């Protein structure tokens, strides 16, 4: 496994670089769940709804 910091070739199962001692363990990135998407959409719709109501109040003719 190549060190992203110094480029040294290390063993495949190494946790730290032999040369620069940097952490070379792979970083696991989690995919967002449907609950996260639902929560974000609810927040966006709430903000848009409040903005719509405030604009209607302030821009009344």
Description of the structure:
The chain is rod-shaped, with a radius of gyration of 24 Å. The protein has one helix at residues 34-58. The protein folds into two domains: 1-28; 31-61. Helices cover 41% and strands 0% of the residues. It is built from one helix and no strands. With 61 residues, it is an all-alpha fold.
Number of alpha- plus pi-helical segments: 1
The number of distinct β-strands equals: 0
Order of helices and strands: H
Shape: rod-shaped
Work out the count of structural domains: 2
**Radius of gyration of CA atoms, rounded to a whole number:** 24 Å
Largest sheet: none
State the share of residues found in helices, binned by percent: 40-55%
- Strand content range: under 5%
Straight-line N-to-C gap: 68 Å
Label the structural class.
mainly alpha
Q: What's the mean pLDDT score?
A: 92
Low-confidence stretches: none
SSE layout:
Elements: H1 34-58
Key features of this structure:
2 domains; 41% helix
Structure at a glance:
The chain is an all-alpha fold. 41% of the residues lie in helices and 0% in strands.
């Amino acid at each position: 496994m190549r060190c992203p910091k110094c480029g040294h070739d290390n063993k495949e199962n190494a946790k730290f670089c032999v040369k620069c001692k940097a952490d070379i363990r792979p970083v696991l990135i989690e995919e967002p769940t449907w609950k996260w998407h639902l929560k974000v959409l609810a927040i966006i719709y709430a903000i848009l709804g409040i903005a719509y109501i405030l604009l209607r109040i302030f821009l009344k003719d």
